[in-house]
Amino acid sequence: MSDAMVLMKERNEICADVLDGKIPKRVPVYALITMEFAIQYAGRDLTESQWDTSVLDDIFDRTCADFYSDSMPISAFRFPSFYKLLGAKNFVMGSNGFLQHPEVEGMAEEDYDAFIENPYNCIIERILPRIYSELNTDSSSKALALTKAFKAYQDDMGTAVNLYGKLIGKYGYCSNVNLFGGFCEAPFDFVSDQLRGFKGISKDVRRIPQKVKAAVEAVAPLMLKMGTPVNPTPYNATFIPLHMAPYMRDKDFANLYWPTFKELCENLVKAGGRNFIFVEQDWMRYLDYLYELPEGTVMMFEYGDAKTIKDKLGKKHIISGLYPLTLLNTGTREECIDKAKELIDILAPGGKYVFSFDKVPVTVDSVKVENYRAVLEYAAQNAKY
Description:
Pfam family, one: URO-D
GO molecular function, one term: uroporphyrinogen decarboxylase activity
Radius of gyration: 21 Å
Structural class: alpha/beta
Domain Uroporphyrinogen decarboxylase (URO-D): 181-357
Protein name: Uroporphyrinogen decarboxylase (URO-D)
Mean pLDDT: 95
Largest sheet: 5 strands, parallel
InterPro entries: UROD/MetE-like_sf, Uroporphyrinogen_deCOase
Helix content: 40-55%
Order of helices and strands: HEHHHEHEEHHHEHHEHEHEHEHHH
Distance between the termini: 28 Å
């Protein structure tokens, strides 16, 4: 058996054990790295490399060789090709080579009734043409634009997926656990992010809360369909980034956000899967709610008190995140390693812990690379339960 296969076997065991509620022989280490970071790290042109995916092989390989991770560390969620072909207004390539997500309002306030009656039809007929200019035309031109964009999507994402498989085999990454097996949003976040926008939804919550509630409830079945993996298993999780809750009043969260999100998570588990949620911003006032989610939910926290989170959630759920990525840029090597030790000492005892950072690095100058590598290697060698 090759060294890579031996390593993969060990990683498969520790990653599965965490999800199964067992205590592995060591803490899994997940280095979640963006495609943009990898391109910059390899010294390649950011814009050109996202258009010509054939160059990603060497780029990803170099990152995998230099940064420790028990899972495939790089993920590419978005490429500019299909957004450009659709004339996207919600994801626009900036002059610096980064896809920007401007504030958009795909759904007008007067669209609520149509959305509540049939969200799918409203999205197709009213919302998409506002967000994508190439879909705001006659049916023949619209069909052609959609076909071109879907072909570009399949080509670019297919290249990335094939590359992931190659690197998993070469570096012996965990191959039996995929925390990104599916993707969706909390129903409230979906209505907020792409449809009404931050300003619009904040206004609606105060002026027309009943319509917001009805819209969120109406779109919940679409989020379940979107988020259910093709082959749902407890090792093939659905990734759900959480957005709006920290900016809401407690009573609005309890009434408008939580019920459909909890139901979504429960239904994804009923379908045979597992939830991997990115607890974005500060959710400390909502920890009691998070406890109610299906047992074994993986929660990657951006902010919060590690001890409180461990005490409240660590016996039922799997905790990750919380290591401040900014420290890798401002701290010394010793300070960075001391922080890793501190978090491991708090979060590892009793199991249900995966070492990772509070954010993913996007720009190569946002961290000191030597600190990043040192922390990952320290965690791999010293993080025990």
